Amino acid sequence: MKESQPSAIFLKDYKVPPFLIDKTELTFDLEEATTIVTSRLHMRRNPAFGKSTAPLVLDGGEDVKLIGVAMDNYSLPPEEYRVSEDKLIITATADKFVLTCETLIEPQNNTRLEGLYRSSSMFCTQCEAEGFRHITYYLDRPDVMSVFTTTIIADESRYPVMLSNGNEVERGKTEEGKTVVVWHDPFPKPAYLFALVAGDLAVKNDVFTTQSQRDVKLQIFTETHNIDKVDYAMEALKRSMRWDEEAYGREYDLDIFMIVAVDDFNMGAMENKGLNIFNSSCLLASPETTTDDNYLRVEAIVAHEYFHNWSGNRVTCRDWFQLSLKEGFTVFRDQTFSADMHSETVKRVEDVAFLKTAQFAEDAGPMAHPVRPASFIEISNFYTLTVYEKGAEIVRMIHTLLGAEKFRAGSDLYFERHDGQAVTCDDFVAAMQDASGVDLSQFKRWYSQAGTPTVLVTDSFDESTGTYRLTMKQDTPATPGQPTKLAVHIPVRVGLLDPQGAELTSSVQGVDAQEHVLHLTSNEQDFEFTGLTARPVPSLLRGFSAPVKLRYDYSTTDLLLLMSSDTDGFNRWSASQQLAVGELNTLIKQSIDGETLSIDSQLALGFKTLLNDASLDPAMVALVLALPSQAYLSELANPIYPAAIKQARDFLKAQLANVLIEDFKRVYHEHNVTGEYQAVAEDIARRSLKNTALSYWVETGNELAQQAVLDQFQSANNMTDQFAALSIAVNTQHAKAADLLSAFYEQWKNEPLVVNKWLMLSASQESDAALTTVKSLMAHPAFDLKNPNKVRSVLGGFGQSMSGFHNADGSGYRFLADQIIVLNKKNPQIASRLCTPLTRWKKLQPELSVKMKAELERILAEDLSKDVYEVVSKSLA
Ligand code: PHE
Ligand code: ZN
User: Fold this and answer.
1) Does the pLDDT at position 673 exceed 90?
2) Among 117, 262, 267, residue to substitute to test ligand 1 (most atoms within 8 Å of Cβ)
3) Closest ligand 1 atom to the C-alpha of 265?
4) First-residue to last-residue Cα distance in the chain
5) Which residues pair with 202 in a beta bridge?
6) Per-residue b or e along 346-378, where b marks 16 or more CB atoms closer than 10 Å to that residue's CB
């Protein structure tokens, strides 16, 4: 352990910056081993800070070597400045001056992948959140916005493409024959949006004509061998640009928009002004190598980063506590975009399933934090599901409370009022409130309170008056640092069905409608529906109108009715999940108690209806058929018995498969359409239903089904079907599973993104040798500890294997902890993310819990990065 541990910084301590930087001029003399960065910062004291003689304190990194510093061309002698661990402090400054700094950095040795680093044969940067300080000394905070001019000097034979933000304004040669390219970005921006790329790259060009008839040049750059895989991303980009004009009235501002794909990247992608940088796994797509899910992901991420140009870049965050200002809003925007491009209900179900699994787990664990956190040790740890996905739910609730039209007026006002500013979540809500006249003061508690509220619903019916009453109680559990909670404003969308499943009209506070939005604002509240003749079945929280855990004691008959008849597609799915969870919980309990599993599944009935209803969207049928995941069942459980969850799920799946074998077989064949691959909703839907049906059919052990898996693996003309066949073979321990895995590797060993999928699947295999397998994967030539995608594939895959990760002897936990300790030094962000499964130790069954905790303690004894220290120490607190 270190002698002094890193300390937290607090939102309440926010102060405006003492200095501003009007212009930033950067020169990069690019060399792999040592790059020299010269910065000329046009600075002045910030009038908003008040009169002050405070010293100038610039942020830097331990990996930045200061060569020299000058003030208005007067080179400072050592006694006039001080370099501490990560700061450059200049005691005396004028009110206005130009500060010149020369620093040396080592891109080649940068394994953190923050700042300037090398990926394959190129240079690239990543500056969000605090990466710019690893390039040069700066006021590295988002409320310091500056106009950047960037000069890149490099050897053109190796780096013919040299890019930065904005427009290329000059090109020339140095005396030594190196090429010089100058870029200028007219929009003031924080340093986290700075980007630079240099490499021998291929480009795909296109043009987008904006609504005001301006032509924008579009360019996607990749390494040469990948340029045939960017067509889909380019089309997605154009759809995004059009959609933002139509849905939000937002037009692109520069004359050029560039995207670059890099193989080594900590996250998915980054919205640098005019120069987005993508993890290649989130950009490249081709039918042979990319699954449907990945296609949709590429589209969503291209859109997300593009949308940041307004929600993030033109209007940015005042400080990092406000991260959800840009991320929550932008996720909401990309979700709506994807819904518009494909199916609204399917998209909603997928997003909610993810939220309820992963974000709810985070909100119930030791790292639980508000959407706008009050403190942090390392901001990189706060790029979380809470900030992103729950943040998007908050924006969605505002949309529900205001209605589409007023929401649009609110977003227009927000962009107009704050264009070119760095603002807060409060500013966002204020614009929404001012434009709509809707009071959002209580609603704002969603930003500051952590934890998932529970809404407990009971009901009664008064036959004499035809009045149906819902009583709702809300309660938000205590979370670290927040022992007590206040009531939040929860919009609950509700409809009522009659016992035959027909939608009823009812009256709430004098308003007649089939659907009502109830405003639950107190701890306990009654809602009355009048004009009814019989007791209805309530369809509650339609479309998942608030991120809460809603509890209502539905009978199986009610759930089957909702599943088959609700007009709200989302709640049809939700009912099926509740039914499945009920049955699975019975089985889990039997398993924990050591009983023989048995159940008379009612779910089979619901499934049968679905499988025989040709009018349904096959994608929705597939979603209903997919049993709640092990991860979701773990989130619901307390304590978690991983092996019991797996056993229960396997048992129910096999039982359903046997009962409905003929239906699954038929549906498999009905939807097994061949033809040219297209990543369009209709085809994606059919493939997903077909492959779900196959996964059940195979469970029966039927020989034809076993053969169908092999045939599909061999003959598929697209990665979706081929990989589905492979996954089914591996997950059902098909006799040929091992052969298929090696055949797959042989076929795709030259396609790194496909190899990553192979690594993931191989690492997640259930077997007594799971740990040995994962160790051999890490020694495999296809593995590379420096590449985040590969680390995620292997260690993420391993985390899904019950027999491997949750092995009773604790060897799985020990192995993961060992990897975290190694990565802590190389790439703290990735190391910190790998800790997530270990943070759940308190909820685990006692025998496993102690073993997991011991591994966290072992990690804590190491000399840790801020990133890993924060997660591990908070988990043990
Ligand atoms: N801002 C990026 C996004 O949400 C995510 C990101 C954060 C990427 C930090 C890199 C580093 O689109
Ligand atoms: Zn984002």
Assistant:
1) no
2) 267
3) 10
4) 16
5) 222
6) bbbbbbbbebbbbbbbbbbbbbbbbbbbeebbb
Residue from 114, 305, 327, 699 carrying the catalytic annotation: 305
Find out whether 795 and 770 touch, Cβ atoms under 8 Å: no
Q: List domains and CATH numbers for the chain.
A: 1-200 (2.60.40.1730), 201-309 (3.30.2010.30), 316-551 (1.10.390.10), 569-876 (1.25.50.10)
Atom 3 (ligand 1) nearest CA: 270
d(CA 65, CA 85): 11
| CA-closest residue to ligand 1 atom 12 | 270
- Ligand 1 mean position, distance from CA 271 (Å): 7
List pLDDT tens digits, range 224-263. Answer: 999 999 999 999 999 999 999 999 999 999 999 999 999 9
288 is catalytic: no
Query: Is 452 in contact with 636 (CB distance < 8 Å)?
Result: no
**What was the pLDDT predicted at 2?**
53
* CA–CA dist 447, 280 (Å, integer): 33
The protein residues having their C-beta less than 5 angstroms from ligand 2 (an ion) are 327, 330
List the residue whose alpha carbon is closest to atom 7 of ligand 1: 128
Atom of ligand 1 nearest to the CA of 308: 12
Strand order of the sheet with strand 215-223? 201-209, 215-223, 256-262, 275-279, 269-270
User: For 538, left (φ over 0), alpha (ψ -120 to 50), or beta?
Assistant: beta
Mean pLDDT of 664-671: 97
ipTM: 0.99
> Residue 850 — φ and ψ, nearest 5°?
-65, -35
The residue contributing the CA closest to ligand 1 atom 1 is 270
Side-chain half-sphere of 591: how many Cα atoms within 13 Å?
20
Task: Report the C-alpha gap between 823 and 786 in whole angstroms.
Answer: 9
Q: Which atom of ligand 1 is nearest to the CA of 383?
A: 7
pLDDT digit string, tens, across residues 361-384: 999 999 999 999 999 999 999 999
pLDDT > 90 fraction of the chain, expressed in percent and rounded: 98
d(CA 749, CA 669): 31
Among 112, 271, 297, 382, the mutation site with the greatest number of ligand 1 atoms within 8 A of its Cβ is 271
Average pLDDT over residues 293-319: 99
**Pocket residues: Cβ below 6 A from ligand 1:** 126, 128-129, 267, 269-271, 304-305, 327, 383
- Eight-state DSSP code of residue 702: -
Tokens found for residue 196:
């630079």
Q: Bridge-partner residues for 257, per DSSP?
A: 218
The Cα 340–Cα 128 span in angstroms is 29
Q: Hey, whose CA ends up nearest to atom 5 of ligand 1?
A: 270
pLDDT at residue number 73: 86
Contacts of 494 (CB under 8 A, 6+ apart): 470, 515, 516, 517, 518, 527, 538, 539, 540, 541, 542
Q: What is the mean pLDDT of the chain?
A: 97
Helix ranges (DSSP H) in 678-810: 681-699, 703-715, 719-731, 737-748, 752-763, 770-779, 788-791, 797-799, 802-805
What are the backbone angles phi and psi of residue 280, rounded to the nearest 5°?
A: -60, -25
The values of phi and psi at residue 610, to 5°, are: -60, -45
**Ligand 1 pocket check: which of 192, 262, 383 to mutate, most ligand atoms within 8 Å of Cβ?**
383
CA atoms within 13 A on the CB side of 236: 30
Tokens representing 747 are: 């076929």
Ordered DSSP codes for 450-493: -SPPEEEEEEEEETTTTEEEEEEEEE---BTTB-S-PPP-EEEE
Taking the CA atoms of 284, 287, 288 and 290 in sequence, report the sign of the dihedral they define: positive
Q: What string of DSSP letters covers 769-784?
A: THHHHHHHHHHSTT--
The answer for residues whose C-beta is within 8 angstroms of residue 781's C-beta and 6 or more apart is none
DSSP summary character for residue 566: -
